[in-house]
Amino acid sequence: MTTIALTPEAEAFLARVREELADLPPDERDELLEDIESHLAEITGEGDAPLAVRLGSAEDFAHELRHSAGLPPRSAPGEPSRLDLARTRATVIGRRAAALPRRLDATVFWRLARGWLLAVAVAVVVGRLGDTRAWSLSHPWLPHAGLRGRAAFIALAAFVVLSFWLARRAAGNGVRIDRAASAVAIVALAPALLHFNSPPRDHIYSYRTVVETQTEPGLVYNGVPLSNIFPFDRAGKPLNDVLLYGSDGQPLTVATQVADPSRRYLVTRRGERLYNSFPVRYFDPGTQRVARPDAGPRVKIPDILTPPLTTQKP
Amino acid sequence: MDTSQMLKGVIDVAVLAVVADEDGYGYDVVRRLRARGLTDVADASVYGTLRRLYAAGALTSYVVPSEEGPHRRYYGVSDLGRELLGEWCGHWRSFVQAIDGLLAPHTEVLG
User: Fold this and answer.
1) What is the C-alpha to C-alpha distance for residues A283 and A226, in angstroms, rounded to an integer?
2) What residues are paired with A143 via a beta bridge?
3) What's the rounded Cα separation, in Å, for the pair B96 and B94?
4) Is A72 in the B-facing interface, judged by CB distances under 8 Å?
5) Distance CA A260, CA A283 (A)
């Protein structure tokens, strides 16, 4: 049997006729119903009068059909079997599902959504799936097909207009193109859902780029912030209160975002704290005393042959 | 007067005659019957009659797929159908003459 989109009223009518003919051999019943189904599809497209007015009740219709077809009156009138009811229900559900695309086509919502999905389809074809060339970064719902800003919005609007235009044309000879557009839109649902489920990878990359190019406050060694520096002299003796400066004289500091009360700072006569003295030492909790002034990493200073350099300044 | 009861007796020949003119699908036959003046013909009667005549071998049937809407089952008249139609034509003449004869005096009175 061919599947035809029927209105809910026509479906209900057909289902009742089917119930009335439940006692007939399936082949015979199906052949009769096939003609009735086409008939219903045709007459419901013609006018607005209820089927009951045009055809009478489904029961009378079935009775007349049976009578004129020379078939015996219903053998077991009354309750249709459970199996028949289940079958009827399954048929109705199946029909509704099959008619869904066509019914959707008629709604403004679908025409809008289809416009957007067509833009998605083009964007996905032009760019790659999950690529930034397919989607706008600033407006994650906007398929932009490599276009930028306003051009992407205009392209999207054009697709929506196209969708409405196709739907209008479908009333004439353009039904095939209209259906093809719907099919493309339904296929484009998959990449669209995928996109919303996991945004393009470049989103993450761009986020990382931002992090990496940010200037870390304080000293950085191979990209990793340093929290301390431990100077030693050539004999392996740990040094304290070594002040470090850059080549243009700026102090090399390890700043903490919040003033750390347990950090031991060198304080100038003018009351300024120096942040560039190393190693940074910490007081014992609640005291102003550094318990181990020579604490530091264990290093092994090799035997040094080069004679020491002496400096003139004090 | 409701002519649907009268139609029941002649629906077979009416349907055969319409299909003999030109092949048609169910709703097409309904419309052509109505266009020819049988306005009371019921859709269900026509469909049932088509199936019965087809089952009896008086009609042939074929399906024409349609891009735009439902597929349509067309009916055409078979050789047996033409024979039956011929027989009916003979019976119908004498039947109508008999009824006309019965009604003639009353028609004048009423007219």
Assistant:
1) 20
2) A135
3) 6
4) no
5) 10
Q: Among candidates A95, A72, A75, A73, which has minimal Cα distance to A4?
A: A95
Q: A204 CB contacts (<8 Å, ≥6 apart)?
A: none
Residue A209's pLDDT is what?
Answer: 47
Q: Identify all chain A residues contacting B75, using CB atoms and an 8 Å cutoff.
A: none
Residue A56 contacts B, CB cutoff 8 Å:
yes
* A162-181 residues touching B, CB cutoff 8 A: 175-176
CA dihedral for A15, A19, A21, A27, sign (positive or negative): positive
The residue among B9, B20, B1, B4 whose CA lies nearest residue B85 is B20
Q: What is the dihedral of CA A120, A121, A127, A128, to 10 degrees?
A: 100
Cβ-nearest to B47 among A35, A45, A54: A35
What was the pLDDT predicted at B77? Answer: 95
* Bridge partner list, B61: B75
Contact of A67 with chain B, judged by CB distance below 8 Å, is answered with: yes
Name the minimum distance, in Å, from the CA of B95 to any CA of chain A. Answer: 22
Q: Say whether A2 and B42 touch across the interface (CB within 8 A).
A: no
> How far apart are alpha carbons A84 and A186 in whole angstroms?
34
What's the CA gap between B92 and B107, in Å, rounded? Answer: 20
Q: Write out pLDDT tens, residues B4-28.
A: 777 877 899 999 999 999 999 999 9
Contact between A64 and B69 using a beta-carbon 8 Å cutoff: no
Give per-residue pLDDT as tens, A110-152: 888 888 888 888 887 877 655 666 777 777 778 877 777 788 8
- Which tops the pLDDT comparison, A70 or B3? A70
Alpha-carbon distance of A291 to A288, in angstroms, equals 10
Nearest residue of chain A to residue B54 (CA atoms)? A69
Which residue on chain B is closest to A37 by alpha carbon?
Answer: B70
Q: Tell me which of A179 and B86 has the higher pLDDT.
A: B86
Please list, in sequence order, all residues whose beta carbon lies within 8 angstroms of the beta carbon of residue A207, skipping any fewer than 6 positions away: none
Taking residues B69-97, what's their average pLDDT? 89
Chain A residues near residue B46 by CB distance under 8 angstroms: 68
Burial class (CB in 10 A: 0-12, 13-18, 19+), A121: buried
